[in-house]
Design goal:
This protein is an all-beta fold and about 250 residues long. It has 2 domains: about 110 residues, Agglutinin, subunit A (Orthogonal Prism); about 110 residues, Agglutinin, subunit A (Orthogonal Prism). The chain has no helices and 26 strands. Strand 24 and strand 25 form a beta hairpin.
Length: about 250
Amino acid sequence: MRGAGVCAILAAAVALPLSPTAHAVTADKTDDKLTAGEILKPNESVKSENGQYKLIQQVQGNLVLYGPGNKALWGTPTSGTTAYATMQREGNLVIYNASNQPLWGTNTAGNPGAYLEVQDDGNLVIYSASNEFLWSRHAYVGSLPSGHTLKTGQWVQSRNGEYRLLMQKEGNLVLYNRADKGLWTTPTGDRPGAYAAMQREGNLVIYSSSNKGVWTTKTAGNSGAYLAVQNQGKVVIYSKDDRPLWSVN
């Protein structure tokens, strides 16, 4: 069993493909992995080796990780429709609806043979075929894609591992260097449970636990924009055609 700690980040996130992997097969329920080409249909699941954590594709559309006591620890924002999950052969974990339209993905394409592992410590990690870290339920590598959120304890890490943008429990979104020195923060403290959303219309917004917007980059009108944490420590919002819209040095 591999630990959750990772020293080096070597892979870049790329665009989500628009069609499911051909010749996908049902997941092997006897192990803790979803390997290249395997799918999870509604009500199907894979478990950690110690049996304490279960990743299940729910009938209502969410892919959810449960821990001890059947407590939900993580889930995809894909409820409201029949859906299935597939670990695609090019490296993306993708949720598709019944019409084979993509609803959500990890943006880890470009890594043929990558696989998803449900770990004994409760982490959910995608590794490349050569066992390099690509994605986890706690961290994004390089960028926060359009439509994705950072909840408390989640972060975006630069590809070289030197910087991370962390959503903290008190409500601030903070940029740290490797020495854990704070370099930049949003003015959103004293809001436990707040989260950051890279909205599909282009705004990065901090929401309170009651879903009230409390801070924004004011970059709306740029559908498909995404946030990047660069190797030099710069945080940038780019349009979908890679024009810089907003930045923090």
